[in-house]
Amino acid sequence: MAQSRPVRVVAVSSGKGGVGKTNVAVNLGVSLSELGRRVVVLDADLGLANVDVLLGLQPKFNLSHVLSGERNVDEILVDGPSGLKIVPASSGIQRMSELTTAEQAAVIRAFGEMSQDIDVLLVDTAAGISGGVVNFARACQDIVLVVCDEPTSLTDAYAFIKLLKRDYGVHRFQILPNMVSDYQQGQALFGKLCRVTDRYLDVTLDLLGVIPRDEHLRKAVQRQTPVVLAYPHSKSAQAFRTLAMKTDALPISGQASGRLAFFVERMIRYNNTAVL
């Protein structure tokens, strides 16, 4: 039976790789689970999956088996920590990173057939502005854009925002500075990005949170355990819990009902080559 409550669908994206995007998705997912939310993380980096690696999981099936028709989404779900569910992507399979627009829509459409009721779907996209990244991101209600204090990170984040605004009318983005020395540096980083977008783009940026640089986070990665569980009292763990509360408080679009039907419908509408 389709659930009647809205489903929160959030893309976790970045203009460039190496900014800690997947770590954010995993720790945000666990923190939301600890708030009592039923959370699924979709590893939407279709060629270089790494959510399962960060969690030390070894899934037998992945999204490539959904696309081939061998399995449905329910059958490939993997149990993660704290009740988190993972939809694993393939790793090192070039075919999965070169899906056509219709095939990308087919992956999204598969989520409309999920039998499990969930509260939050976190979509961990690949880095950059490829067609696959854009298709996943613009089908979500909210886009969390992870940035770090590097010129290329800000430049690529601006390019990401510009593309989605210019070509697809996305006008609101949640900005998350990561690996910064303190909250003030995160605010300064957010301010730099805002000054450029305020001048050239008609968009709204919100500072969703700030994740500090933390040696405990590196250690947690080596242990293949989310930092919120491995070092729950660390600075980064506390920041992720705050991030989860702010994410949970974001307004949910009224069209997000009936499991993930709206997510599917938006994807299909965007891609008129796909067939329901």
Walkthrough of the structure:
It is globular, with a radius of gyration of 17 Å. The protein is built from twelve helices and nine strands. It starts with 7 loop residues before the first strand and ends in a 6-residue tail after the last helix. It has helices at residues 21-34, 51-54, 63-67, 73-76, 101-109, 131-138, 151-168, 183-200, 215-222, 227-230, 235-248, 261-270, and strands at residues 8-13, 39-44, 78-79, 85-87, 120-125, 142-147, 172-180, 204-207, 211-212. Strands 1, 2, 3, 4, 5, 6, 7, 8 and 9 form a nine-stranded mixed β-sheet that branches. It is α/β, with parallel strands linked by helices and 276 residues long. The protein has a single domain (8-268), classed as Rossmann fold. GO terms for molecular function: ATP binding; ATP hydrolysis activity. Keywords: ATP-binding, Nucleotide-binding. This is Cobyrinic acid ac-diamide synthase.
Distance between the termini: 20 Å
Order of helix and strand elements from N to C terminus: EHEHHHEEHEHEHEHEEHHHH
Number of strands: 9
CATH topology: Rossmann fold
Query: Radius of gyration, rounded?
Result: 17 Å
The CATH superfamily is identified as: P-loop containing nucleotide triphosphate hydrolases
Work out the strand percent.
Answer: 15-25%
- Shape label: globular
Give the biggest beta sheet: 9 strands, mixed
How many separate domains make up the residues? 1
- Helix content class: 40-55%
* Average pLDDT reading: 85
CATH class: Alpha Beta
Q: Low-confidence stretches at least 5 residues in length (pLDDT < 50)?
A: 254-259, 270-276
